[in-house]
Amino acid sequence: MKKINILFVYLIHGLGGENKDFVNVKVKLEGTFDKLFKDDENDREVKNIIACYCSSANSGMKSTFPLEIMFENDFKEYTKYFENNLIKTIRREKDKYNKNNDIECDIYISFSGHSLGGNVARGTITRLYRPYIKNEKNYDNFFEYIKKEYSFITNVIPCSYLSLSSPHLGSLVSEPNETSKFIKRTEKKVVKAFCNLAIGDVGKELTFQDSKVKSKASNDSIHNDKSSKYSLINCCSKESMEALSKFPNRTLTAFLRYDLQVKYCSAMGCIETPLPSILKNEKEILVKDSENDTRIVMYSGYEEGSELEYYQKELFNEKISKNFYYNNTKVVASPDIDDQIKKAIINNKEKINTVSENSSSNNKISEEDTKNYEEMEDEFLIDNDNQTEIPVALIKLFNQISYRRISLDFVVPYGLLRMLTHGLCLDVDFILARRACIKMMAKKTKLFYSHLIIADFIRTSKQTDDYSLLYLLN
């Protein structure tokens, strides 16, 4: 029986953005995919095609709405495009490939979100796997409706979730320490003013000021879960994380430094950044401050054995990721989130007055001291680089499931351009980003994002014996 595999990639821009922000990534992804699968002619048993869509549901000022409203907007756009456009494209390809009905059609769905788009993608995924009602009929979820309504669709298979510098743990800047008091105090005031005045309701949610949010979605309750007063915690409900866990390839990426908009720990869903240790002991694995360049510094979360071996062959090597991956790029263990929380609580003398004398010597704290991590939504911890404050409950709940994590370094000239590090990886076209060195760096990042999504697709669709990104080198 012949078969069609469709990779459908949904790309979501960040705060204040629009669908054109992802256009250059989309073009690179589609071009790389088509080049790899160019030999999929009609006489082959399996045909692979790609469809990419750049979301516009929350463009411009709509991206300042509360998260629940943005989730609903994107869900409506996603389902509308899926049924009205993608299904028609697949039907057309199916008829061209084999007019008979004796053919399988599998859709592999992937999401990539930049900045706030990574948060919106998670909320959209939650809604896609909620019970769905259409024409007064009940379905387990939207995709079950699709399979029953369009019988030529064999299956809809979750593939990739990729976030690019997304504020999963919010944007609340920590109190200043002694060594950076003036700078941190200024940054805290600027961020708070920006979030309150410039970016509206979502800014208040990102800084845990939800009580000031006036507009709410009509269906913002979390199904079968105790709701928190913080939207970011509700985004990590059991229902939401179970929906996200359906995607076998969950990857978080972040810049180790110079990302003013989204701090490393928030994007990585953790409370410890390796940057202080790297600057002290392994500075050679970072890009030199005098250079304009970008690279992979370290990665984690790939299971030892066939999974790690596959990605080291397809992604983490000097051939596929040329001048982006180097032989001193580190593969490290996934963060021990519980241990990070315990250490932070112990060190956070101002938040928790005392740790018992017996426990302080062996770096442990009792259950009575910590309560239940998942209930500690008003207990804020400061990350080890003294950048952000994060509720214990949010750290714990976000890490109910595992992730792959990729740490990047991205160094551009001093001044205004360095302040724009957060968005330069997408190759967005604006005057300051047209410099040759920036274009060179953006070329590396967008190619890497494309390779990552395609590698996930090849492995998830069980085509590793037939296709490899190494073919692109020939």
Automatic annotation (TrEMBL):
Every DUF676 domain range: 9-264
InterPro entries, per database record: AB_hydrolase_fold (IPR029058), DUF676_lipase-like (IPR007751), Lipase-like (IPR044294)
Family listed: Belongs to the putative lipase ROG1 family.
Cross-referenced PANTHER family: LIPASE ROG1-RELATED, LIPASE ROG1-RELATED-RELATED
Name of the protein in question: DUF676 domain-containing protein
Protein species of origin: Piromyces finnis
Lineage of producing organism: Eukaryota, Fungi, Fungi incertae sedis, Chytridiomycota, Chytridiomycota incertae sedis
